[in-house]
Amino acid sequence: MAFKLYNLLSFKGQPDMTLEGLTPCSWYSRGPFDSVAVGKWASEQASDLLIVDFEALCGDVRIQSAECVAQGHAQRIAAFRAARKEKKNPRAKVGTYAMCPNADYWTPVSPTEDKMLAWQGSNRFNSLIADEMDVVNPSLYAFYDDEKGWLKFALANIEEAYKYGKPVIPFICPHYHHSDPKFRNTMIPYFGTILDTVRERCDSAILWGGWWFGSKDVGKGDEPGHPWPWEPNFAWFKEVQRIVRGL
User: Fold this and answer.
1) Which of 43, 103, 153, 232 sits 20 to 30 Å CA-CA off 143?
2) In the chain, what are the domain boundaries?
3) What would the pLDDT profile of 129-175 be if each residue is shown by its tens digit?
4) For the chain, how far is it from start to end, CA to CA, in angstroms?
5) What 8-state DSSP symbol labels residue 101?
6) Rounded to 5 degrees, what are φ and ψ at 126?
C-alpha cells in the first residue's frame, strides 16, 4: 500500500486538497447509530476510505461495563457490514476512529505494569470489531507541548494497532487537541515530526482538523466554535506539502 495522506480537514476557505495531493476520505459520525443509515451513507460515497465513527458508544472495558461495550460493538459491527455491503466504491476500505487500540496517552507515556496490562487487555477486547474492519485507525492527536512525550505515546499506540493484523491509518491533526485549554486552538510546532513518524511506521494517515473550539482565542470546551479560517502560510501545511512531494 502506497503511503497516502487522506483529507478530513475542515478549515474555512481551504484550497482544493486533491490539487495539493491529498486523497479524499469519507467520515460518518453525526447520523444515527444504525446499520441502515450507514449503509445508505456508504452507497453515496465515492472515496476509497470510509470511516464509521461510533466513538460515542461504549468502547473501553477499563471504564465501562463489558456488557455496555459488547452492545456498542454489536452496533458497530452491524454498521461496518452494512457499509461494506452497500459501498458505492468496490475498492473502499472500512475503518473506525480511535477504537483499535483505545486511544490512551498517559498509560504508555507514564507506564506501570498494571496499567499497561489493562490497556492491552481493553484493546484485545476490541479485536471483535477490528476483525470486521479493513483498516484500523488509531488516534495520534497531540495533547501537550511535549514532542518526546508524543513520540512515546504514538509509538506505543502504533505498536498496539498493528497487533490486529490490519493496515494502520492513524488520525493526526496539525493543532493540539482541545481538551486542555492551555493548548487549545494552537498549531503544533513539531507537526513535521508527527508526519515523519507516521510515514515511516504506518501505511497511510488521515489529516483531521480545522475547527476552532470556542468563540474566543481560548474558548470553553462546551462552546460550539466555528471553522478555523485558512491561512495560506500555515507552517504545518508546508510540512504536508513536503510529505506529499516525497521529500
Assistant:
1) 232
2) 5-21+91-244
3) 999 999 999 999 999 999 999 999 999 999 999 999 999 999 999 99
4) 18
5) T
6) -85, 0
> Phi and psi for 193 in degrees, rounded to 5?
-65, -40
* Pick from 218, 203, 219: nearest CA to 93: 203
Residue 149 backbone phi and psi in degrees, to 5? -65, -45
Q: Give bridge partners of residue 29 from the DSSP assignment.
A: none
Q: Are 203 and 4 in contact (CB under 8 A)?
A: no
Q: Which pairs from 59-62 meet CB under 8 Å and 24+ separation?
A: 59/99, 59/102, 59/126, 60/102, 60/122, 61/121, 61/122, 61/125, 62/102, 62/118, 62/119, 62/121, 62/122
pLDDT in tens, 177-222: 988 888 888 999 999 999 999 999 999 999 999 988 865 544 454 5
Residue 121: how many other CB atoms lie within 10 Å: 12
User: Alpha-carbon distance 107 to 243, whole Å?
Assistant: 30
Q: What is the DSSP string of 56-70?
A: TS---TTTS-HHHHH
**Rounded to the nearest 10 degrees, what angle do helices 191-201 and 147-162 cross at?**
20
174: which DSSP letter? Answer: S
Mark 130-154 as b/e (b = at least 16 C-beta within 10 Å): bebbbbbbbbbbbbeeeeebbebbb
Alpha-helical (H) ranges within the chain are 35-42, 66-86, 106-109, 113-125, 127-130, 147-162, 191-201, 235-244
Whether the per-residue pLDDT at 30 is higher than 90: the answer is no
Question: Residues with Cβ < 8 Å from 81, sequence gap 6 or more?
Answer: 35, 132
Of 230, 211, 215, nearest to 12 by C-alpha is 230
